[in-house]
What does this fold into?
Amino acid sequence: MEISAFHAIRRRVDSAALAVGTTVRLLAVCKHQTDAAVSLLAALGQHAFGENYVQALAVRRERVDAPILEWHLIGGLQSNKCRAAALHADWVQSVDRTAVVRELARHRPESLPPLTVLVQVNIDSESGKSGCTPAIAAALCASIAAQPQLRLRGLMAIPHAATELEDRRRSFAAMRALFERVRPDHADFDTLSMGMSDDFELAIAEGATMVRIGTAVFGARASFSP
Ligand SMILES: *Cc1c(COP(=O)(O)O)cnc(C)c1O
It folds into this structure.
């Protein structure tokens, strides 16, 4: 990992945010990266890290011994993995159905603060992809708000990897509209997680408050599995 790459991305995130008068959080997506790279980024002040799989997150959290870091699960979640997610994650960004809401709430230990969650929306209605339909997002948010062990913070999306930037812009804008529509119903609803290495500036221009960036921060993924 190049230290300069991280600083360059941090600057690009900040200036894109400044252009629209917001602040944007950077989630460093560290799937398949080395522990050394994660530790280095943490030493540079990066706070939030994302993994795709529950098991990878749990192992990573244990090995990168830095208690103040914040760990986000960003990959699709099967019901039988909810217990581990509720034990090991600080945030789950991929909540997309009521069974997952119920299982996360049931397994979040009383000794931990409520689990922060985002509702993942399949904004382009792609078949076989994680995320709820835009039509049920508000109802799913309401079911989360009813669970004291969960803390609803907003929405997440992975738009269709369109080659046309205008198509992606339309998906981001649709997410923002949905976010603004649901927001008045919930006190802590402040996070719109969208944008990755190749489109985060566009996502920020369209209202993202958190971007999830892997390769642009770490370099190409090593074939490293924890
Ligand atoms: C891998 C991943 C990212 C980061 O992707 P890059 O293109 O490497 O920036 C963001 N979000 C999710 C859900 C991912 O799985």
Q: What stands out?
A: The chain has nine helices and eight strands. The first strand starts at residue 25 and ends at 29.
